[in-house]
Amino acid sequence: MRWANVAIGVGIINSTLWVVAWTWISMEPPLPKAVSSDEISLPFATQPMVATPRFRDFPELETLPVIGGDGTGADTTWTRRLGQLLLTDVGDGVNSLSVTLEEQASLAHVKGKMPVVWLVAPECHRCDDVSGALKHPRLQRALSHSLLIRVDASQFGAELIDLQLPVSELPGFAVLSRDGTPLDFMHAGEWDEDTALQIAPILESFVEREPMRRRFPWRGGPRSDETPI
Q1: Could you tell me if residue 54 is inside a domain?
Q2: What SS3 state is found at 124?
Q3: How far, in Å, CA of 71 to CA of 79, rounded?
Q4: I want to staple 139 with a disulfide (CB 3.0 to 4.6 A). Which of 69, 101, 148, 200 is the partner?
Q5: Which is more confident, 16 or 100?
Q6: 121 in a domain, yes or no?
Q7: Between β-strands 85-90 and 114-120, what pairing exists: parallel, antiparallel or unpaired?
Q8: Domain containing residue 179: CATH number
Q9: Is residue 11 part of a domain?
Q10: pLDDT digits (tens, 9 = 90+) for 144-202
C-alpha cells in the first residue's frame, strides 16, 4: 500500500512539471524571422557621389569655367598650351573683366607663374607680328614662367581704362598682382622690330621685374571714378 502511494505521488509531480513546461513554451514570444537584405530600408539614403571633372594633363584648368567644345558659353575663358607657354584667352562673354583677371592671377600665383595681361585688338598688325613671334624658342623661354592672359582691348576698353591700362598703344603687356591689380605696363614701343630676338630680352626683364631703362615708363592714370581736384 505504501509503494502505491509513492507511485501516485510521483505521477502527480511528473504531470505538474509537464503542465508547467507546456505553459512556459506556449507563452514564449516567437523567434524573429530572418530578414533578407532586400527588406532592409534606410531612413536616410546616402547621396551618390558625383565625380569632379579632372584635367590630368592641365591641372591649371580645374578652376576655370566649363565651356562648350566650340568655345561658346556664358564665360568664354579657356586655357591652352603653346609650346612652353600657357595662354588664357578671355572672350567677350565674361561678366566682369576685373573678376576674371583676379581669378586668373590667383590661379597663376598658385601655380608659381606670373600673370601677364596681353592686350591686342583686331586689325592690329603689330599684335599679329608679336603673336607670330611667340613661336620662337627664345621668346618661349622668356615667357615660360608666365601665364599670358590675352584680352581684346576693343571689347573691354572701359574696364581696362578703369584698371589704368592704356588701350591706345598695342600690343600691350601688364603684370598683375595676386589680386589682379596691374603692377606695371609696357607696350611694343619699347622695342624697334617685332622679332623674337628683339622682344624676348625686353619682355623677359619686364615679366621678371628686373630693373630696365624704359622708353615709356608707366605712371598709371586716372581712374574713371576719380574726380580731378
Answers
A1: no
A2: coil
A3: 11
A4: 200
A5: 100
A6: yes
A7: unpaired
A8: 3.40.30.10
A9: no
A10: 999 999 999 999 999 999 999 999 889 999 999 999 999 999 999 999 999 999 999 99
